[in-house]
Input
Amino acid sequence: MNLTLKIWRQKNAQDQGSFATYAVRDISPDMSFLEMMDVLNEQLIAQGVEPVVFDHDCREGICGMCSMFINGEAHGPDRGVTTCQLHMRKFKDGDTITVEPWRAKAFPVVRDLMVDRSAFDRVIQAGGYISVNTMGNLPDANATPIEKHDADAAFDAATCIGCR
Amino acid sequence: MSSKLNSRIPEGPISEKWTKHKGTIPLVSPANKRRIDVIVVGTGLAGSSAAASLAELGYNVKAFCFQDSPRRAHSIAAQGGINAAKNYQNDGDSVFRLFYDTVKGGDYRSREANVHRLAEVSASIIDQCVAQGVPFARDYGGLLDNRSFGGVQVSRTFYAKGQTGQQLLLGAYSALERQVAKGRVKMYARHEMVDLVVVDGKARGIIARNLVTGELERHSAHAVILASGGYGNVFYLSTNAMGSNVTAAWKAHKKGAFFANPCFTQIHPTCIPVSGESQSKLTLMSESLRNDGRIWVPASLEDAKAIREGRLKPTDLPEEKRDYYLERRYPAFGNLVPRDVASRAAKERCDAGYGVNKTGEAVYLDFSAAIMRYGQEQANLKGMHQASEAEIRALGTKVVESKYGNLFQMYEKITDENPYVTPMKIYPAVHYTMGGLWVDYNLMSTVPGLFVAGEANFSDHGANRLGASALMQGLADGYFVLPYTVGTFLADDIRTGSISTDLPEFAEAEAAAKARFEGFLKAKGSTPVEVFHRRLGKIVWDKIGMARNEAGLKQAIEEIRALREEFYRDVKVLGGMYEMNPELDKANRVADFMELAELMALDALTRNESCGGHFREEYQSEDGEALRQDEEFAFVSAWEFTDNDPGKATLHKEDLVFDNVKLVTRSYK
Amino acid sequence: MASQRGLFGSSLARKYWMALTGLFLITFLVVHLLGNLAIVFGTGEDFNAYAAFMTSFPPIKIVSYLLYASIVLHAADGIALARQNRAARPVAYGTYHGAANAGWASRNMALLGIFTLLFILVHMKSFWYEMHFGSLGLDANGNKDLFTLTTAAFEQVWYTAFYVVAMLALGFHLWHGFQSAFQTMGWTHPTYTPIVQFVGRAFAVAVCGAFALIPLYVLISPNV
Output
């Protein structure tokens, strides 16, 4: 498929920034959105244009690093997935796709689509921990039973924190 | 044993070594700890837990990670679970059994004393994590649940759905952030270690690059701990995160730390296959799927070709035209053979032309038999004696969904195929590296003051890691080993005073790093870094991958050297040094992978045997099984960087002594 | 953060106050509606007796001061939160597809709330002020004749139109707000939350619909 991309380019936090329009061709529907961005970047490098900077790491939907605001939606049109698990089959040939960084005072843009999310670390520092030191003689892990329902709910809470 | 290697294994019976050793390690008083700085590189399970624990003890800690937050480290992606010898299930587990299973699973290439210590502290890890608030799966009585994992006969794996690594990392991360809030840890996110600084033969600091500004920074400390993970990305495609790299460990290697067993890499058998040239990353599907899935390829080459070309559907192929090759070759274990065996068997079939997707590199993992089996059970339970095939299938699908639903959903998202209806396609992928920097019993490398923890060191998994052991090792190192053993080195440093970053060693290291980055920018060639990485990965995968042979390894060395030469001449990196420039970061990482790859080939070439993840085609039995050579090769290969050339490294051998485990051949027939 | 800014300043505390005052105002709506139904189902004297009771019975008077305070706090916190929300995103998205994540009512709570506040002011001027400080005549039972004032107001088309539109705004406000108050307070549960959501929406439609029907009834019916 062939696509038109409107991507936010911003050199650094001080820069004003603006949208740039690029065309990409022969995108496979099996590619992830980030792999499509890789194709764009290889193309830009060949043209001598600096590639688009974006955050990404695990690319299997768990680390929470990939961000991006795609067509006016966080992580794009698919539901319950991160951008790295969004696949191009969710788009149509000839689509124009707008890609922006998160827009929030708490997350200043670092460059292009990359923002600084260290505010989340500061939230945890403000008290998001249990005050237990490392000890070799803590009570046995089964000393306090915890309801299955509560334990399972806690997985989801942690998943939410992890994705920020 | 080489005179340069002293493993410092304490005397005495194996079950008393750690207790005795802990009791004799020199202590550093709380007042003196405040005068000692420690650098921790990497914030995964090993790094976060070490940094938090050392800060709690009173040391001044500086922690570094290349990600935007310590909680992104790739430990987060671990799915299956974490082992501990709790014996909650009353099924006969014990510290000795965990120790024994781990040594055997590692194909007898790990150090007994370290593995025993790992098994000893495993139970404390679970207690620690639960106290920190880490949620684990529980049964309806509110007590901790366990599951069984590959290669063992007890249920000792603690888990949290398919996200155990994430839960554990958030626990370690919150312990770390607590110390950051107190000012005990200074956190440097988006910083990458680009060199180790050695002063008077001791590790005294690092050069780090601030990835946002591009500035090179000098950081000094009395000791440096590397917890920078494995090097699976040398293969380009792997289940590692995109940023995972070997640079910190490799730079330490070039400054004197020996690199042990680099050729021991783990290829995981159940990953989603490569779909096309532009693929950047492979996704693991939990090993647990092999409990119910049957692995097969078409029995005839014509059918395989027809399937590849889309003229034939797998569901149309009758039973007698399918080759359930694992069940055929290993009737005793069938689809449940260990990871290394399953991976090699898949490669063998695909190489012979039986692969099933467009690229010819995939085999089927088929749940239809399990669906019908479970469906029949359910029908019987419900008293549906005249159930139609469709009804049985619907009932069975429900059972499979309840067991593996999230994995099936993930598969469908990525491949757009419904695995309940058509068999899954899987292929092996690089997953973990057992090799790493050589460390002694105290986890100290051959550079005094440089400690190495987690996947970055080599010590506990031998030639093959068992499932759910990586999380255990990372947290053992960080929570319960390093906080004690750093004392062996730091007790002598209480009078040193702070280390100045104005020392000439810092200036030299910084200048060298600067020249290196400028070199990438100045090359002004025509080929992007990514292309070099992809080409390197292809060489490593084809010739230093699941099966290796002498000719291929020698060829690989030639090709890697040529590629490296081309890289420095022709790499194209745009932008400047003093700005956020991920292409430049990548160039630096790929350059180190290209040196490591050569050492891997050299190591594989030297090890004339097959063991665990290292399979040399020359050393196999008549029916294609691995042949270990214990007489000659029961040692750790520790490579010293010499002659300023990775290919001219000097081999040192640490002989492995097995007093508590009897060496036998693994057989799954 | 919350402790430094006390019980009122932090955004979290404000959300709690929004939820609690919101739920209290919802209970008031029920009482108010029951009284209004006297216009349709009772006589003018019944309605006037009800109005007299509401303005003189001491416990109700106390509750009414709580009510005025709740309206002020709900509005002030709502405006403060909306402003804070806007300030948190100084640079707007180039493309924003809000409907993908939240319903129209949810995204327009501040607008709907402000319109409702405007309505309350007009409404209080029309009836509450006249009842307390105006010069209303007396009915046969000697109660202030609020009934005549009310029906006269509702017979004006523009007033009834404004009233109906305001009820529509309040309906949308409650469509989201009822369930959202429970969410804010952390009263969520996989089984009960959908029920709360259904009840909230049914309440919004039924109560605001009934409020709006009364002036329409007065306007259309020649007997009143």
Notes: The radius of gyration of chain A is 20 Å.
